[in-house]
Amino acid sequence: MANFKLTRDLQIQAQTKIIHLVMDGLGGLPRAEDGKTELEAAHTPNLDALAGRSQLGLAVPVAPGITPGSGPAHLSLFGYDPLEYDIGRGVLEALGIGFDLQPEDVAARGNFCTVDEEGRITDRRAGRIPTEFNEKLVVLLRDIKVPGVQTFVEPVKEYRFVLVLRPTEGQTLYANIADTDPQKLGVPPLPAEPQDEASKATAELVNGWIAAAREILKDHHPANSLNLRGLAKDPGLPKFGEVFGLRAAAIATYPMYKGVAKLIGMDVLPVAGEDVEDEVEALRGHWADYDYFFFHVKKTDSAGEDGDFDRKAAVIEHVDEAVVPALLQMEPDVLIVTGDHSTPSALKSHSWHPVPTLLWSHYCRPDGALGAGGAEFGERACGRGSLGVFPATDEMALALGHALRLTKYGA
Fold first, then answer.
1. Strand 355-361 to 334-338 pairing
2. In the predicted model, what is the mean pLDDT of residues 163-172?
3. What is the pLDDT, as a whole number, of residue 372?
4. What is the model's pTM?
5. Sequence-ordered strand ranges (E) for 81-224
6. Each residue of 86-101: pLDDT tens digit?
């Protein structure tokens, strides 16, 4: 885990640049026919060649055996202990779409979903409805009134939206409230249960809003219901630039990842489109302005959650072809390639498996050829790498050290 006091005390200025390439949900599980994971099955000549000049390892986002959500997993990559700095996804989604979140607001990520005649969930994501359909539904939900509270409902993307509750009559809202999504099919949504006495009144308000929303949605198949996740308030985390001495920028296309970057004080760069090529152009256009770049790729995770092994491998191949050479052409001083967590297509969900990680710099000790056919970037090669199985929170300290941005500790 990054020791923030230590990194503050030891940080020194340097004209060096760090890129953190994060392929969301990168880790996978071997398929039956050849024993290869999605990363190992993908044709990745650029990553494989880079692996031969790098140090490899497997990063643990939270703790062994613990499956992380996207928020904790990304905080871990940025050096924040996710067990100490707990944050609900609602705040990340709200910040990610540029919502002006206030300290007393409670934010929740909403998912439109599909339920059958008995109220049982048949699709947790409502068939990934188009964002345009989402926007029409959000307009309807804005008519719901909650006593003593101002409500905001904003579209995010596809089946996702944000609900924000803001107190208007001197009351205080509390957010220690459980998700309503049971995370499985064939069962009804859960109530928004308070997890402490202070959150009881807020949970009642939330349940009232949910009941009204579901009544409005009941005839709008496939988005005929909804769930709320990650109810939270802004926790006021330490700022990334202060603890690591870096001018930091985030390059992402999905709001949640913009949100986690904003939460810790990174600048979120504008991206002209939805493709990784657009993200590369954003990097090129701002290369001179920042020391650290968080470069996020979402579609690896989406394919894994859909159970599509071949599509996930294809996304990795596209990153290898369109992103990796472009990043190397920028001549960074440190390049880390990893994921926030594993999303094996075999499980169709996040998992607890450590994440393959590659660290390249001018000052690393290369592991060389660790794959069966030579240098290779994959789970098994990373399992034999010199970084070992290590906490993902160590990646920032490793990056700073390799970028010559930490002075000596002690006499």
1. antiparallel
2. 89
3. 67
4. 0.82
5. 106-115, 121-123, 149-157, 160-167
6. 888 898 889 888 898 9
Under a CB-based contact definition with an 8 Å cutoff, are residues 241 and 248 in contact? yes
Average pLDDT, the chain: 95
Q: Which fold has domain 4-86+237-402?
A: Alkaline Phosphatase, subunit A (3.40.720)
Distances in Å between the Cα of 39 and the Cα atoms of 47, 50, 312, 351 are: 10, 15, 8, 15
Alpha carbons 327 and 54: distance in angstroms, whole number: 15
Q: Token pair for residue 393?
A: 């929170």
Is residue 385 within 8 A of residue 354, CB to CB? The reply is: no
Q: Where are the domains of the chain?
A: 4-86+237-402, 92-232
3 state SS of 168: coil
With beta carbons less than 8 A apart as the criterion, state whether 28 and 343 touch.
yes
At residue 327, the 3 state secondary structure works out as helix
CATH placement of domain 92-232: 3.30.70
In this prediction, residue 278 carries a pLDDT of 98
Question: Of all residues in the chain, what percent carry a pLDDT higher than 90?
Answer: 88
